[in-house]
Amino acid sequence: YPDQPRGYVDRAMVYLTQDDYQQVTDILTPVADRFAEDFTVQYLLGVSYQQLDQMTQAENYLTRAVDINPDFRTAWHALAIIYDNQQRWAESDQIYQQLIDSDSTDAQAYNNYAYSLAERNEKLEVALTYAQRAIELSPKTAAYLDTIGWIYYKIGQPRKAESYISQAVQLDSTNATLLEHLGDVYQKLNQPRKAKQLYRKALQIAGENPQLEEKLR
Prior knowledge:
mainly alpha; Serine Threonine Protein Phosphatase 5, Tetratricopeptide repeat
């Protein structure tokens, strides 16, 4: 049934479960305009192009997806991350705030907005409030523990930062960003040996990384 999206979606889903995003796009891109009103086709293309780091296409298809189904929050989250990574913060901030305003239990929205603000060194008091809310909602999520710890680091409270980020590393010891953050905290606490151990471990995981290499010099 070439006029029905189901067959194409079913084929694409097989490859999506294998993390073969290129195959997903190969199957669905040629029929994307034919099924321009089908949410699943547009959404799967959006997230697959995002995984392939082809952000122009990802934005295009995710925008189509949220136009078709504006209540599908996961698509909005994906779109916000694209804007955030492109430093289009007016757009990402608007989406994060809409997600928070429409669901006060959306821990991911609180966390991602808080981390974005922390990385920009903007509105750190607001960022801390949002990070605290994310932790209330999901206290054992490594990324959320890292976010609140990173904000404490940014506002000059390295002991509190250590408490949270060390918990994050215990939960996810193979995340290079968490290890680097904890290393930065130990540098601030005048414990350079601990810091360099963490930087070395982070570099082993991340591979080539000029920022980590500089910290190890």
